[in-house]
Amino acid sequence: MPRESRKDVPTPESLGDECDALVANTEKYVRSQKGLWQKVPRLALMADNGYAKYGDAWKRGYWKVFLPHNPHYALVHIDLATGELCSGNGSGERASASEILSILPYNKELDLLSAKKVVADLRKAAKKEHEPIPGEVSVKIWRDKMLREVGLQKVFVRQGPHL
Hints:
Elements (H helix, E strand, L loop, with lengths): L11 H20 L2 H4 L2 H8 L7 H6 L1 E6 L2 E10 L5 E3 L9 H14 L4 H12 L12 H12 L13
Antiparallel strand pairs: 1-2, 2-3
Helix pairs in contact: 3-6
């Protein structure tokens, strides 16, 4: 087996540059889907069954990106008004490079950062019939009530502060 020459071995600086480029490209990819991300809050409410499964999306305007091995903790959120990647801590601050890099191995297989996939999944979920919500007449009446209370339009624009 031929030995690698010194010039073929990555340096800490070159690895750092590659990570920086990967983070920047990931942010650019997610931001490029802003138009689709802005549709998510209303679709999330239409897909919700009254138990606020997608509450962060339609109440606050953030899509949580969950990993398959830990479906209760989101490392990053996507700001649905801007398409920006935000920290999973709920602060609305920009996601760190380490947070972004930690989701990428799962994104390749699961398409976690695809607004097109999220929109398609929500549209499919919205078509399902849901049991009536305790204390409410129907899921449809509950949704209509939430639409009025939250003031969601077809294209989401943040009204007021991030959180």
